[in-house]
Amino acid sequence: MKSIVYWGSPRQAHLEANETLPAKLDLIIDRLKIRERVKDELVAIKIHTGNNIGYSTLHPVFVRKVVQAVKDGGGRPFITDVDWDVAGAESRGYTHETLGCPIFPAAGLHRCKGLPVYPPACPSCCERRYQRRHPEALLRFP
């Protein structure tokens, strides 16, 4: 059985909003019927958030569109990737605010002083850059 591959060409015949890649992603999301599949589901969206100076990542606008489709369908989305990449995701534009949902390391969160923080968990982790800027959002989720 052959797999169906959905693809949107980056080419634009006219400078119109409906010919942009984000608009084409909307069409793919509709064809996949994501909104109909996620009602009341906790939905992990696994992406590569990059590492160090890595730049082979999706632009946050595309991730946000998928997140919004899951939310529109009644799902509860979250972004996930390996611990060491999630720890620096903010520096590449992946934040709760830009994506519209929380970002969690695939191996789970560690706790320091009662708050969830990114690894590495250590006595001084609350002062390190691995701590979420908005731990209250993590405490409420899911």
Overall tally of domains? 2
**What is the distance, rounded to the nearest whole angstrom, between the alpha carbons of the first and last residues?**
37 Å
Helix content: 25-40%
**Could you say which overall geometry the principal axes of the C-alpha atoms support?**
globular
Cα-atom radius of gyration: 17 Å
- The arrangement of helices and strands along the chain is HHEHEHHEEEH
Low-confidence stretches: 119-142
- How many E strands? 5
On the 0-100 scale, what is the average pLDDT? Answer: 80
| Helix vs. strand class | alpha/beta
What strand line-up does the widest sheet have? 1-2-3
Beta percentage is 5-15%
Give the biggest beta sheet: 3 strands, parallel
Number of helices: 6
Walkthrough of the structure:
With about 140 residues, the chain is an alpha/beta fold. The protein folds into 2 domains: about 1-30, no CATH class; about 40-140, no CATH class. Helix content is about 30%, strand content about 15%. It has 6 helices and 5 strands. The chain has helices spanning about 20-30, 35, 60-70, 85, 95-100, 135-140, and strands at about 40-45, 75-80, 105, 110, 115. The strands form 2 sheets. The chain has a 3-stranded parallel beta sheet. Strand 4 and strand 5 (about 115) form a beta hairpin. Helix 1 packs parallel to helix 3. The longest helix has 13 residues, at about 60-70. It starts with 20 loop residues before the first helix and ends with a helix.
